[in-house]
Amino acid sequence: MIRVTASTPVLSYIPFSVVREMLMDNPRKHDRTSWLQGPPETCSTVPPAVDNPWRLILLGAPGVGKGTQAALLRKELHACHLSTGDVFRAAKGRSECDLTPAMKSALDYMHRGELVPDSFVLAMVRERAACLRCRGGFILDGFPRTVEQAESLNLLLHDERVHLTAVINYELPVGEIVARLSGRLTCQRCKAVFHGTERPPKVTGSCDICEGKLNQREDDRPESVRVRLDAYDRSTFPLIQFYKRSALLLTVAAAGTPQDVCSKTLTALHAWRSRYIASA
Ligand code: AP5
Fold it and tell me: What is the CA radius of gyration of the chain?
């Protein structure tokens, strides 16, 4: 197994604008330092304790809008957005010599659009297991992505004595997914996500949040997108059956504006929780 060791203090690896974006709307709600950087780094603020925190997994093909929804749901549910893709992208911002050979190899997989090997991803998540106990709850985005990852997550949650609330599966026709990916623009500095036509920035080419330069993600090039969609069909799609069997799966149509999709998700989640409480 590849061991992912906690690295040297890394706040300096992440541009200030990223930290500012993470903290600007409400610092008590959104400090992901523990997740993005791993131990020994810790979040500067602890979310307020809530009764029945939401502990969710977002499933769906690349480009369906998981990251966009996680950002909106986070504001509504106060749960932390835990994206494995964001951990890799944060590492990508470090200088070459600050990356372990294992992380360099993981970034090569990502660049090609292939899944990073399970052993590496699982070690990385285990290292961040404390985030699963976060008292504000969590929204996992991009993890688990294989049945092996899902089985390991079950064991990890058992060890941490926490339970999943629900798994949301976003669905969208493949043509619309490709359109979302090919139009996606990401801020080089703070990683905020826009879309050329659906969610354009106020000033062309410039981030609304930090005025950083917007560009296309390397893995949104057509050749990588094909590889990512194949990897989804082969490795991640089977998770729908996996979570159906655990009676945790909620399916939400991802068509409509981001706010529409978020409203549909919240309605489904609250109905789900009411049914659960009524049957308990
Ligand atoms: P990751 O970062 O997880 O990427 P992904 O799953 O491919 O998902 P995306 O970020 O591409 O899309 P999204 O669904 O979040 O859509 P978004 O909200 O941005 O992973 C990247 C790579 O890291 C993987 O390929 C792999 O190599 C590696 N990796 C990560 N986790 C791993 C794991 N567990 N195991 C192995 N490898 C792993 O939206 C897309 C676009 O659509 C945006 O432009 C957005 O503005 C727009 N949009 C969103 N919603 C709407 C809407 N409702 N209407 C119109 N436009 C919309």
Answer: 18
